[in-house]
Amino acid sequence: MSRYVSETKTILERLGVPAGALGGQLVARSPLDGGPIGAVKPTTPEAADAIIGKAAEAFALWRKVPAPRRGELVRLFGEQLRANKDDLGRLVSIEVGKVPSEGLGEVQEMIDICDFALGLSRQLYGLVIASERPDHRMIEQWHPAGVVGIISAFNFPVAVWAWNAALALACGDAIVWKPSEKAPLTALACQALLMRAIAQFGDAPEGLSGLIIGERDLGELLAEDHRVAVVSATGSTRMGRAVGEAVARRFGRSILELGGNNASIVAPSADLDLALRAIAFAAMGTAGQRCTTLRRLVVHESVYDALLHRLRTVYGAVAVGDPLAGETLVGPLIDRSAFEGMERALDTARAAGGTVTGGGRVAVEGAEAAFYARPALVEMPGQTGPMLEETFAPILYVVRYRDIEEAIALQNGVPQGLSSSIFATDMREIEQFLSAAGSDCGIANVNMGPSGAEIGGAFGGEKETGGGRESGSDAWKGYMRRQTSAINYGRTLPLAQGVKFDI
Ligand code: NAD
């Protein structure tokens, strides 16, 4: 049993999780000590089918509610999150092992996206388009898309759902969520808070927000169900390939947010003090379990030795341990298979000529069943082998470069395209990195690491990262359907392109 079991129970009660949802066969474990913290009743396929059906019925009503009124529901949900931030943040830390500021940060991100979606509910703008025909007007408007299915990963167990849920609800959609089987308790907590907001709202249709808890088969069910108009799936590229294909087969729409293999370039003009701090957070923060974690460092040969000397010291000294029990920056990996994946990648790197600093399991008292790993810094002779894959653990591979063209080619030379960054003060190199011939990623930062996105921008990446965009900017359009209308207010019937058809 985990030492966090009774605290978890108390938090779940305070957040209003119904007792009936607990006590089933799906065991939730805390990676902080590896012990069980609760059990959840998985949703049967029949119940999931009924939940999707209810959501489809709710959608038919919700789409007719004026958008600013829909925004009011999102506002109420944001208020619930504000009032319960400490509890939910703590639960995130317990269930997936995040340091306290990151657990709370995830809830803050949920609050931020609610604020954003509330504003958006008065700004779902269309267009008026000049018509080529006399006495005609053309418009483009955005209508709610339908039921939005949300499949989420363990590493952002609550924020990613909120990105999707807040926008989808403001846009007039109903939602059905299939959270990670590794984080069912935070999902129950979020659903309970949304249910409170729905009760306060008063007249939202029943079934507007559904939760289906279980393994990947429930995700497959969502992907294959023709009643689900949009499937927004966050997770590994392997999962995204399966979901993308299933959704495309039935001509549904998918938003895919998949694995990253993110690089930073350290140019000769870089501020090395700033770069060092940014690299440490981006590579080791969240124990390397962010989709935007820094995994590859491309360093100019003129600053390589100076930077690597300092990085080795940081890697040797960083505190690893239970972040709720002491002052540590690096918490546990989610489970044994994550640790084994890290070990395998390090073995492959060694076989490819890499020199490894760090790595290996860290023993933490009272947490013998948990998997804590020392972050690893791996100097590679070239960009080969495990550098081309995403290993979801704190491994930072380092290679040298000679000119900026080579650095950009290395940055782009992997199958994934999520996030990237450059450390430089030379304007020409920075602009080259940000140009059309520069980074090929969805995110390209300057003088900061690739991780830690704000909700105001569109989030997502190219190539095997899946091409989806969520969160800010105009990502809301992914949750609506576009309609173009031509309106003839004259008494004749001129046809487009001068076509004649007189009867
Ligand atoms: P995962 O792919 O194992 O699981 C993610 C979710 O997909 C889970 O809910 C799982 O049950 C479900 N799933 C798995 N296979 C499925 C299938 N064939 N059909 C339908 N559903 C399926 O990922 P994970 O280990 O939970 O999370 C880590 C991965 O997520 C990393 O690759 C990381 O980069 C990625 N990630 C990406 C982003 C992003 O925004 N790009 C954000 C967070 C995490």
Explain what you see.
The chain is of the alpha/beta class. The chain folds into two domains: 4-258 and 466-484, Aldehyde Dehydrogenase, Chain A, domain 1, CATH 3.40.605; 262-453, Aldehyde Dehydrogenase, Chain A, domain 2 (3-Layer(aba) Sandwich), CATH 3.40.309. 39% of the residues lie in helices and 21% in strands. The protein has helices at 5-14, 45-62, 67-83, 85-96, 100-120, 159-171, 184-201, 216-224, 237-249, 272-284, 301-317, 336-351, 404-412, 427-434, and strands spanning 22-29, 36-40, 127-129, 136-144, 147-151, 174-178, 209-211, 228-234, 253-257, 262-266, 294-300, 355-358, 361-362, 372-373, 376-379, 395-401, 416-417, 419-423, 443-446, 458-459, 462-463, 470-471, 480-488. Strands 12-15-16-11-10-18-19 form a seven-stranded mixed sheet, sandwiched between helices. Strands 7-6-5-8-9 form a five-stranded parallel sheet, sandwiched between helices. Helix 10 links the parallel strand 10 and strand 11 (294-300). Helix 4 packs antiparallel against helix 7, helix 5 runs parallel beside helix 6 (159-171) and helix 8 packs parallel to helix 9. The protein is globular and about 80 Å long. The termini are far apart. The model has no long low-confidence stretch (mean pLDDT 97). The structure holds nicotinamide-adenine-dinucleotide. Nicotinamide-adenine-dinucleotide (NAD) binds next to helix 8 and helix 9. Residues 28-484 form the Aldehyde dehydrogenase domain.
